[in-house]
Amino acid sequence: MANHPECNVTVRLFHPHKDLNEKQISSRINKIMRLADIRADELSVIFVDDSQMTEYNKSYLGRDDTTDVLAFPYNETNEEGKFNLGDIIISAETAERQAKEFGHDFNYETDILMTHAMLHLAGYDHTRDKGQMMKEQKRIVKLLYGN
């Protein structure tokens, strides 16, 4: 894990939130990647509002409602030889509601969502893996927060 190269994380904030900071998000994503032993050169993390997320959910999954997080794997190497893992899209509004509902802060909730999406990008599928993805997600979040 010590020799784990940094991933170039492009962060786009289409929905402002007082706790969203591009540099911190990039740092947290790289830490999640190290803990999950996922390697990539490029990745995008996009924060949107519920209406934007509903449009993504409708366009790509045929669901006419919002969701907390979507992951779009690319798993391709570009012309410069850089491996692009994919895109993570998070509804900041839903993350805020869920943080309040579960009694933790916004950054903790977004770390759970980023970890969840990262595992999907790495090929995990919680609908078919008999709990393996959720077990890995809990392990990573526990290491992130030491609890």
Task: Show the helix and strand layout.
Layout: E1 8-13, H1 22-36, E2 42-48, H2 50-61, E3 69-77, E4 83-91, H3 92-102, H4 106-121, H5 132-145
Structural notes for this entry:
With 147 residues, this protein is α/β, with parallel strands linked by helices. It has a single domain (8-142), classed as 3-Layer(aba) Sandwich (Collagenase (Catalytic Domain)). The protein has five helices and four strands, in the order βαβαββααα. The chain has helices spanning 22-36, 50-61, 92-102, 106-121, 132-145, and strands spanning 8-13, 42-48, 69-77, 83-91. Helix 1 links the parallel strand 1 and strand 2 (42-48). Helix 3 crosses helix 4. The radius of gyration is 15 Å and the shape is globular. The model has no long low-confidence stretch (mean pLDDT 93).
Q: What does the overall shape look like?
A: globular
Helix content: 40-55%
Low-confidence spans: none
> Biggest sheet, in brief?
4 strands, mixed
Provide the structure class: alpha/beta
Rg of Cα set: 15 Å
At the third CATH level, what is the topology name? Answer: Collagenase (Catalytic Domain)
Summarize it.
46% of the residues lie in helices and 21% in strands. It has 147 residues and is α/β, with parallel strands linked by helices. The longest helix has 16 residues, at 106-121.
Kindly list the characteristics that best describe this protein.
147 residues, alpha/beta, four-stranded mixed sheet, 5 helices, 46% helix, globular
